[in-house]
């Protein structure tokens, strides 16, 4: 999910949005990611050489990241004209940190120096799991306003009996503990990411890695997923069994991928195999009956 979000408003009604998104396990995939962003802007795929020529080195706190810039003539979101996209990527402790500015091309280009300065002020607490923003981006022009956006967009749902809500980490919207017998348990993490959430295959392979399994090829993805009826729309259900890397114990993972307008929701139930099997029906109903805020 987004750990920070800001909007910029220009003097002529121009708008841009700055977001910060961490994606554990999504590293070393510059070509795939840039072409995914290009696709979101209606542009065709670029080659590795083309992307390399357009990549800048940028300071993200005390570390060195990469800065990608893309411009499209096709309107996106509320924009009436060309759209600009800046994405700074930092790989830190197997977490890909994405600092993204998207909006009216002229405004994005004008605020690029401010964005770069903002990146220099980023810090991390306790490794790379917690982000410390010294200051939010402050617009360069007096005619541009920057305001934080409310990230409290938790869906409306009914918590099943026996599920215990726990404090959610900074990357999560919600977390639940599902107890079993003899001290066994499973945990349900709910998170939300903008756009396609990094793509289905990278997320499935990240979860497989958590269970000590090798990555899948794109051609094998259908074997790991199935359609999930959401009553008017369709999501995807992932079911994986393996050995949890953190505990060394047998575990099972059920994950629901739920596309919404401009964002993707992830529900991941993982833990003791018997607990996950017992809760599968409850888990699917929980996901299917969630009501999302407009």
Q: How do you describe this structure in short?
A:
The protein is α+β, with helices and mostly antiparallel strands and 294 residues long.
Features:
Protein Transport Mog1p, Chain A; 6 helices; 7-stranded antiparallel sheet; alpha+beta; 294 residues; 2 domains; 40% strand; 16 strands
How do the helices and strands follow one another from N- to C-terminus? Answer: EEHHEEEEHHEEEEEEHEEEEH
Strand line-up in the sheet with most strands:
3-4-5-6-2-1-9
Helicity range: 10-25%
Q: Work out the radius of gyration.
A: 20 Å
Give the strand content: 35-45%
Helix tally equals: 6
Distance between the termini: 17 Å
* Tally of structural domains: 2
Would you tell me the structural class of the helices and strands?
alpha+beta
In the CATH hierarchy, what is the class of the largest domain?
Answer: Alpha Beta
Q: What fold name stands as the CATH topology of the largest domain?
A: Protein Transport Mog1p, Chain A
Mean pLDDT: 82
Uncertain segments are 147-151
């Amino acid at each position: 999910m987004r750990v920070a979000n800001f909007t910029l408003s220009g003097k002529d009604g121009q708008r841009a949005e700055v977001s910060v998104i961490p994606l554990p396990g999504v590293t070393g995939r510059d070509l795939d990611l840039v072409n995914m962003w290009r696709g979101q802007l209606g542009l065709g795929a670029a080659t590795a050489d083309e992307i390399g020529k357009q990549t800048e080195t940028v300071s993200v706190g005390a570390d060195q990241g990469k800065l990608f810039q893309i411009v499209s003539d096709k309107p996106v979101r509320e924009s009436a004209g060309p759209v600009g996209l800046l994405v700074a990527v930092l790989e830190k402790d197997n977490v890909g940190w994405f600092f993204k500015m998207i909006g009216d091309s002229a405004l994005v280009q004008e605020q690029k120096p401010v964005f770069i300065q903002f990146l220099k002020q980023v810090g991390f607490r306790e490794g790379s799991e917690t982000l410390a923003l010294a200051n939010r981006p402050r617009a360069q022009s007096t005619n541009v306003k920057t305001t934080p956006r409310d990230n409290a967009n938790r869906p409306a749902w009914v918590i099943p009996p026996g599920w215990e809500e726990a404090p959610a980490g900074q990357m999560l919207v919600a977390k639940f503990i599902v107890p079993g017998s003899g001290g066994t348990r499973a945990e349900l993490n709910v998170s939300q990411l903008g756009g396609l959430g990094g793509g289905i295959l990278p997320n499935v392979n990240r979860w497989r890695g958590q269970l000590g399994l090798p990555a899948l090829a794109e051609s094998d993805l259908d074997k790991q997923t199935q359609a999930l009826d959401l009553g008017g729309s369709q999501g995807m259900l992932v079911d994986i069994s393996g050995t949890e890397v953190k505990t060394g114990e047998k575990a099972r993972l059920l994950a629901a991928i739920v596309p919404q307008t401009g964002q993707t929701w992830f529900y991941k139930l993982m833990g003791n195999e018997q607990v996950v099997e017992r809760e599968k029906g409850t888990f699917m109903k929980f996901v299917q009956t969630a009501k999302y805020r407009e």
